[in-house]
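hey so i finally got around to running the thing on that chain from the lab meeting. sorry it took forever, my laptop kept dying and i had to restart like 3 times. anyway pasting the input first so we r on the same page abt which one it is
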Amino acid sequence: MSEFDPVQSLKDQHARSKGRSTSQQQAYLREEKVKRIPGSAWPTFFRLLACCHGAGLTLSDSLDSIAKKAPHPKLGELASRIETALSKGHPLAEAFAPLKSQKPLQYEMLRLGAGTGQLDLCLKESAEYAEREYHHTLKLRSALTYPILIVVSITVGFLSICYTFQDAISENLQVLGIEPPLFLRALFTFFGLFRWEVVAVVVPFAVLTWASFARVLSWRRIRLELYRIGHLAPGLGRFLRDIGTAKFLRAFAMQQRAGSSLFQSLPQALEATTDPTFIKKRRELKESIKEGMRLPEALEATGLFDKRTLALITVGDEAGELPKLVSVAADILQDEIDHKMEMSMTLIEPFVLVVLGFLVGGICLTMMQGMNQLTQAL
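ok and heres what got predicted. didnt touch it at all, straight out
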């Protein structure tokens, strides 16, 4: 709507007379984003909000208390901003709009709680969901940290050896009459780029163009592309689908316990997976539910869910215990994911060590053979 539209101007005047926000203020609240808040702060924010509101404080008082004792400065600024909006009389959905950019599921839960009168329940469910998600994220990071460190250390060590003994390796291979392998030739060509004249050109170019590349190659685009490639891999694709299914089930069960309808909770649960393969099924799933298809059949039509998960959802749908059975399915799937992850990380370590042994041993053997031949020739 145009800024000089008389109809919109009259609506804004009426909103000011009633103490509500104008259209421009609503747009600002919707578009304003929450930045640089670490993931560890969100569970604390939602838990404090749920505890304070459950103890009888109003949302404004709860947010004011969080703003004063926030574990992170940006989180305190966020709580203060929302509290200010509530104090000015903005509706809850508008006041909490800054959450929508990073925590859309919790934002929808707050809207649902305000609409159904179950705000305490929705706050508690949001806090438990945030804590559970952060716990699983920490487990994944801790499982990946050690193997990644091993791989990085081995890679750096191997490249350092090749770079240090580049000339010796090339000479020994020539003495033995062996053609350098393709990967060594590519590696030595790569090392040749690290010269002062090349660095003097590349570094200024990178400094001048990094902002443009950052806009084009945003982390969100990179993450979506990695997800797309990961789903094409035979083993990794199944693992990513299991992770997405577990996230979907937890988010869906939380919304069902809070009293949300299927038509509203299914798209939000798919969004909560942050997986583009799941998110692009929103319209298809909504159309299936709108046409009267039962939930298990609609989920099966997407091709994303395994038979056991669909069986548990079917039993829950028929018995009227859908949130409970969906939570059970999520717990079972999460246990399997944790087990697969531990097994995979356990197998990676000896494999990496064997590869390292072959690489270093091959280089050392090549150098020793060349030295022996030189000694015999002398």
